[in-house]
Amino acid sequence: MAVVAALAMAAGVVWAVVFRGGDQAGGTAPVSAPTAGAGQTGEPGEGAGGAEEDEAPVASEPAGDPAVAAEQAQAVDEILSDSGGARAGLGPALDQVRGCEQAQAGIATIQRITDGREEQVAQVEGLVVDAIADGETLKARLSAALGASLEADRRFLAWARRQAQDCTSAWPQDPDYKRGLAASDRATEAKKEFLAMWNPLAREHSLPERAVHEI
């Protein structure tokens, strides 16, 4: 019996050694916490940047609250309405000056349009567009468009005042008149760039879409 007991104890020791050795050689090793290495800051989306991240980029978040974005878009639309009304009166006023007989009435209209345009440019500068996607780009494009229109209005006003004093002068060759036309062309191109952003936004918020001649 003593021999049997001794053999049993020896077998138990051998089994324990083999079992513990298996845990160390082929078992599950403890998992250490990851540490921030090169290219890792611990912030979401700022890992090492493997192939999977290149194939599936994280989508950008919306610019802001939809209700706030709608209010901000409405503020832009109100400026556009004012601008469109001013532009509609410019052509007839220029005709009055060119025709000489109603030059003073035309000058008064151009002056009123110029004053209104200055106010619109100031209103654009004060717009808050942080809830609109790419709002600052939209604002910059509108500012460029109305700024060029203001330059055109000022040039036409300078020409009109001079033309009213001498209606026999060749107005197509007047330097201010020509500069006004050039500024008007720049305004047209700037308005096209603005409308490329504005009209999709207007549709999104059920606001009227615009054409170049309506700004």
Write up this protein:
The protein is mostly helical. It has a domain at 66-205. It has six helices and no strands. The chain has helices spanning 2-26, 51-55, 66-99, 103-125, 135-165, 175-204. Helix 4 (103-125) packs antiparallel against helix 5. Residues 1-61 have low confidence and may be disordered.
Q: How would the blueprint of this fold be written?
A:
Elements lengths: L1 H25 L24 H5 L10 H34 L3 H23 L9 H31 L9 H30 L11
Short characterization:
With 215 residues, this protein is mostly helical. It contains 6 helices and no strands. The protein has a domain at 66-205.
> What's the β-strand tally?
0
What is the first-to-last residue Cα distance?
A: 110 Å
Helix content: 55-70%
- The radius of gyration over CA amounts to 37 Å
User: What structural class do the secondary elements suggest?
Assistant: mainly alpha
Roughly what is the average pLDDT, rounded to an integer?
78
Using the alpha-carbon principal axes, give the shape. elongated
> What are the segments in which pLDDT stays under 50 over at least 5 consecutive residues?
1-61
> Counting H and I runs of at least 4 residues, what is the number of helices?
6
Give the SSE string: HHHHHH
Biggest β-sheet: count, sense, barrel? none
Beta-strand content bin: under 5%
